[in-house]
Amino acid sequence: MIMENTTTMSGFFLMGFSDIRELQILHALLFLAVYLLTLVGNLIIIIITTVDQHLQAPMYYFLKHLSFLDLSFISVTVPQSIDNSLMDDGYISHSQCILQVFFFTSLSWSEMAILTVMSYDRYAAICSPLHYEVTMNPSMCQWAVIAVWLSGSICGILYTTTTFSITFCKAKIIHQFFCDIPQLLKLSCSNDYLGVIGVVAFIFVMAFSCFTSIIFSYIHIFSTVLRIPSAEGRSKAFSTCLPHLFVVSFYVSTGAFAFLKPTSDSQTAVDLLISIFYTVIPPTLNPIVYSLRNEAMKEAFRKLLLDVQFTRKKTFLSFC
């Protein structure tokens, strides 16, 4: 019945993870737990980097925007997937799919751009410390963030416009839990997806330029750090660089592998697992990674907890 109706229906059908009702509920609960954990972790970073006066350096300013990107990024796909599993309905409307592709593409590129900006910030702080305040002044940081969001929006518009200009004539079944672009292209019945290939090539060149910039930044960073005479100085420098390097490596490797591998005509556990690794895991891990090795972040978090406890105690005493 699904195969008969999906060719003519206006929207698309997301296959999800399973047709078994118990597994659908389990998937919804697991995704809900991960989603709430991600929201809490990223909101904590946004709050403490906003209110704590000791976390007003450019590094934390960019980290705040990365957390906002992560929070938005996971909100594009996971809530829809949870709803589909709970309702036992994989249908997604044409307009919802368009919005999902737009925000997914925009936020994916914006995340790559902000990671590039953060690597340049670390390069300027470690390799040119005397000029750091001039190079990374507040105006420069604000323009960098504006460029990140603007470039993401442009990529999203280009990608979405070309993707949904193609004609879908095959059964509109997407073997994913969200509107995955490679899966959408497989639904095309002609070569009218050449415009999408052109946009993909453009974005790939830009992403490769960002990745190359990050690599060169870290080559200079590590060569500078290794020349620091004190072990304490080297440890402090590495503590601000290694979390960012881990995030970049994980994000780029999983995303590249997912989009360069051939798309399958049927749903496989490997495809779903890979999609989770580049859509769900990075936003969840980033708050943990950036907090574990950063003493300033941990101290700010402890102070936030103490302030919350003090406020609750004061409110309780006032009520009594």
Automatic annotation (TrEMBL):
<feature type="transmembrane region" description="Helical">
    <location>
        <begin position="240"/>
        <end position="260"/>
    </location>
</feature>
<feature type="domain" description="G-protein coupled receptors family 1 profile">
    <location>
        <begin position="41"/>
        <end position="290"/>
    </location>
</feature>
<feature type="transmembrane region" description="Helical">
    <location>
        <begin position="193"/>
        <end position="219"/>
    </location>
</feature>
<dbReference type="GO" id="GO:0004930">
    <property type="term" value="F:G protein-coupled receptor activity"/>
</dbReference>
<keyword id="KW-0297">G-protein coupled receptor</keyword>
<feature type="transmembrane region" description="Helical">
    <location>
        <begin position="25"/>
        <end position="48"/>
    </location>
</feature>
<keyword id="KW-0675">Receptor</keyword>
<dbReference type="InterPro" id="IPR050516">
    <property type="entry name" value="Olfactory_GPCR"/>
</dbReference>
<comment type="similarity">
    <text>Belongs to the G-protein coupled receptor 1 family.</text>
</comment>
<keyword id="KW-0716">Sensory transduction</keyword>
<comment type="function">
    <text>Odorant receptor.</text>
</comment>
<feature type="transmembrane region" description="Helical">
    <location>
        <begin position="98"/>
        <end position="120"/>
    </location>
</feature>
<keyword id="KW-0812">Transmembrane</keyword>
<keyword id="KW-0807">Transducer</keyword>
<dbReference type="Pfam" id="PF13853">
    <property type="entry name" value="7tm_4"/>
</dbReference>
<keyword id="KW-0552">Olfaction</keyword>
<feature type="transmembrane region" description="Helical">
    <location>
        <begin position="141"/>
        <end position="159"/>
    </location>
</feature>
<dbReference type="InterPro" id="IPR000276">
    <property type="entry name" value="GPCR_Rhodpsn"/>
</dbReference>
<dbReference type="GO" id="GO:0005886">
    <property type="term" value="C:plasma membrane"/>
</dbReference>
<feature type="transmembrane region" description="Helical">
    <location>
        <begin position="272"/>
        <end position="292"/>
    </location>
</feature>
<keyword id="KW-1003">Cell membrane</keyword>
<keyword id="KW-0472">Membrane</keyword>
<protein>
    <recommendedName>
        <fullName>Olfactory receptor</fullName>
    </recommendedName>
</protein>
<keyword id="KW-1133">Transmembrane helix</keyword>
<dbReference type="InterPro" id="IPR017452">
    <property type="entry name" value="GPCR_Rhodpsn_7TM"/>
</dbReference>
<dbReference type="InterPro" id="IPR000725">
    <property type="entry name" value="Olfact_rcpt"/>
</dbReference>
<dbReference type="GO" id="GO:0004984">
    <property type="term" value="F:olfactory receptor activity"/>
</dbReference>
